[in-house]
Amino acid sequence: MNQAVLILIKPDGLKKSLTGNILTRLSETKLEIVAAKMARVSRELAEEHYKYLRDKPFFEELIKYLRGELHDRKKAMALIYWGKEAIKKCRELAGATNPEEAEPTSIRGAYGRILTSGLYENVIHVSSNEEEAAREIKLWFNPDEIIVDLYPTKENVIKDFKKKVWA
Ligand code: DAT
Ligand code: MG
């Protein structure tokens, strides 16, 4: 059974010019990329993404980190990888949450660090299980941005809906 997993290249990964290195490492999984984009991360999106950590002392700083406020560009790169055991394969390559405990050859072990505040700056996010992956993918992507049909959709007719288009 194919699985989908949300990967975020966090603002430190982008700032350190690690995008290519990270994508090269992830290509070792032989999984398929079925969606990719640069995203501006609103406070709502960041808080919803990490809502299970709301009570942690580092939550405020974590939100700032994901939004790019600790780096000078407010952006993150979001991708969906798809294939057999996608979550396990990507989490193995990512390494442990704490970059100092992560295998030195893992992405976080090689590129992550711990800030003096104690926050882990660990370069990428990888969904932790199928349920979380579905929740996160629906937060970060619309159905028409993904080139396979991952989850059930419905059609809405939206009247007087304002949308930015090219001038
Ligand atoms: P993961 O990203 O490995 O799934 P998580 O979901 O528990 O780990 O945590 C989300 C992010 O929050 C993590 O990538 C970095 C930060 N974080 C987690 N635990 C932390 C801790 N004890 N101290 C500092 N930052 C932490
Ligand atoms: Mg997690």
Concise overview:
The protein is an alpha+beta fold and 167 residues long. The chain is 33% helix and 19% strand. It has a single domain, classed as 2-Layer Sandwich (Alpha-Beta Plaits), CATH 3.30.70.
Describe the structure.
With 167 residues, the protein is α+β, with helices and mostly antiparallel strands. The protein has seven helices and six strands. A four-stranded antiparallel beta sheet has the order 2-3-1-6, sandwiched between helices. It has a two-stranded antiparallel ribbon with strand order 4-5. The mean pLDDT is 97. 2'-deoxyadenosine-5'-diphosphate binds at residues 53, 58, 62, 97, 118-120, 122, 125, 128.
Taking the alpha carbons of the first and last residues, their distance comes to: 44 Å
CATH class: Alpha Beta
Helix content: 25-40%
User: What is CATH's topology name?
Assistant: Alpha-Beta Plaits
Q: What is the residue-mean pLDDT, rounded to a whole number?
A: 97
CATH superfamily caption: Nucleoside diphosphate kinase-like domain
In total, how many domains does the architecture comprise?
1
In the sheet with the most strands, the strands line up as: 2-3-1-6
Number of DSSP strand runs? 6
Largest sheet at a glance? 4 strands, antiparallel
CATH architecture, please? Answer: 2-Layer Sandwich
Distinct ligands, ions and cofactors found in the model: 2'-deoxyadenosine-5'-diphosphate, magnesium ion
Q: What structural class results from the helix and strand content?
A: alpha+beta
Helix and strand run: EHHEHHEHHEEEH
User: Count the helices. How many?
Assistant: 7
Shape category: globular
C-alpha-based Rg, rounded: 16 Å
